[in-house]
Write a structure and sequence with these properties.
iron-sulfur; Rossmann fold; two-stranded parallel ribbon; 253 residues; binds flavin mononucleotide; 4Fe4S_Fe-S-bd; 7 helices; Alpha-Beta Plaits; metal-binding; six-stranded mixed sheet; alpha/beta; Ferredoxin; single chain
Length: 253
């Protein structure tokens, strides 16, 4: 099994690991640390789990571009997973399904799981929790069963919730800011997936390229980076109220 994920704040990676459990042979590919820059065709028959965080109801645009350009299959079975912050996953999961099918994979299962919102961190705080992890493990077991009888010649696309055409992703109006705690260790600049933090001035952020993924906040050893300011605080309160109702995992086969 190959497990591919993008997980700037860690919950998508945790979800992928909880789905697969302790399988001996899992090859992990973290697109944050190791972006795809050249064609990668999976060996015949090798199943793949692709797990993506939801950004504005879609999969992150940088991942879409990378996967579409470089990840190829020849009838390999694939599992599509979207991880979202308790607002909604909108069209992210069908987008991932379509992308994988277009590149030669047969999507045999899909799931949307909830995790702490990586911008508004009071939303879905503590998730995935015990119940979520149990559902993730159950989903993994159901996928293994479906994989055991998989025949690419008999594949017809499964139904996954979402709209086609997909809704247009709106940009996020907040970007991480840096305060005086910055000790210029450059961890943020070296790991930013869009190179939006200049090495010479790591306390700044290029607002035109930053995708607000929050990897820099997660990696910063001195908590210098974060979403801050009165406008953010007001937006956070409104968002917390809007997304207070607990959403549950949704599975598709
Ligand atoms: C730029 C951005 C946009 C987001 N958009 C949504 C969204 O549309 N719906 C939602 O429920 N959560 C949204 N989230 C929350 C993430 O999907 C969620 O926190 C996810 O678990 C983050 O994954 P990670 O911990 O692997 O980085 C967004 C987060 C970011 C950073």
């Amino acid at each position: 099994m190959t497990s591919i994920f993008f997980s700037p704040r860690g919950t998508t990676k945790k979800t992928a690991r909880a789905i697969l459990g302790h399988q001996e042979k899992v090859l992990e590919r973290d697109l944050l640390g190791r972006p795809l820059t050249e064609e990668w065709t999976l060996p015949a028959g090798e199943p793949v789990l692709v797990s993506m965080p939801v950004y504005a109801g879609r999969i992150p645009s940088i991942c879409r571009e990378m996967l579409l350009a470089h990840l190829k299959g020849h009838g390999n079975p694939a599992i599509a997973v979207a991880v979202y912050g308790n607002r909604d996953y909108d069209d992210a999961l069908v987008e991932l399904q379509d992308l994988l099918e277009e590149n030669g994979f047969c999507v045999i299962a899909g799931a949307a799981f909830v995790a702490q919102h990586s911008i508004f961190t009071k939303v879905a705080a503590g998730r995935p929790d015990e119940d979520d992890r149990r559902r993730m493990a159950e989903f993994g077991a159901m996928c293994r069963e479906k994989l055991s009888g998989f025949d690419p010649d008999a594949h017809t696309p499964i139904h996954i919730k979402g709209n086609r055409p997909y809704k247009k992703a709106k940009g996020v109006p907040f970007q991480p800011e840096c305060n005086q705690n910055c000790m210029k260790c450059y961890a943020c600049a070296k790991n930013c997936p869009t190179h939006s933090i200049p090495l010479e001035t790591p306390w700044l952020t290029r607002t035109d390229t930053c995708i607000s993924c929050g990897a820099c906040i997660y990696l910063c050893p001195t908590q210098a980076r974060g979403y801050r300011g009165p406008v953010f605080e007001v937006a956070a309160k409104g968002f917390e109220a809007m997304c207070a109702k607990r959403r549950e995992p949704e599975l598709f086969f």
